[in-house]
Predict the structure.
Amino acid sequence: MIRKPVFAANWKMNHTSRDAKTFMRTFLMQYARRPDRTVVFFPPALTLAAVSDAIKERQDILLGVQNIHWELKGAFTGEQSAEMSREAGAAFVLVGHSERRHVFGEKDEETQKKCAAANRAGMTPVLCVGEKLEERERGETDAVVLRQLRAGTASLDPATIGSMIIAYEPVWAIGTGKTAQPEDASAVHAVIRRELAALAGERTKDTPILYGGSANAGNAAALINAANVGGLLVGGASLEPEAWATIVRT
Ligand code: 13P
């Protein structure tokens, strides 16, 4: 069975609850339920309730958070746990997003603990991996991606690895307007797919591997049709309801 493509909107630190309501009014009019794809929104944590409310008649649309802490609870000012996120309606969590790694200094060991915490809480981690420009230029893309993939999954059992989502987001393509060529994305996705098989066997053959990095309405079709690309994780182009609806209908 081929899994449905996943279209995921990472709003990053954009859209207040009020913005989200306006966005959803337009988006829901432009995107009728389609059984052949999965749509997920990752709004800011404080906007999650507004999005959840807006989609309560639309069980086909799913929610995630952009980050969690790995501990159950405690003195971690500013953080949110997996359980809190799950209770608020998030079924998914982004782990190891490039901005977490490179703006906030998140380490591989933290991605490992966050994936484990997500799994404990019954959430699906979306583990993000990707190389920086200088790493790509030094020919280190595969090594970087494999290191991040192995670290993020290190404490998960094979069944859990088989049920997660991976996102390949080359750092040089994020928010820059420079998209990876579909064949370049495919080549890295194939490396990820092989490693998933080595880690957790046959059950990973349909694991969605999303591409992210300046995906938009113009390049979405070429990317989504590339071999081994199981969906898109979209930042900038998911902020406008019309553009996002166009991408999701691809
Ligand atoms: P852009 O689509 O804005 O390049 O962002 C990609 C991204 O980081 C999604 O998580």
Residues 23 and 240 are 7 Å apart (CA to CA). The mean pLDDT is 97. The first strand starts at residue 6 and ends at 10. The pocket of 1,3-dihydroxyacetonephosphate is lined by residues 10, 97, 169, 174-175, 212-215, 233-237 (CB under 6 Å).
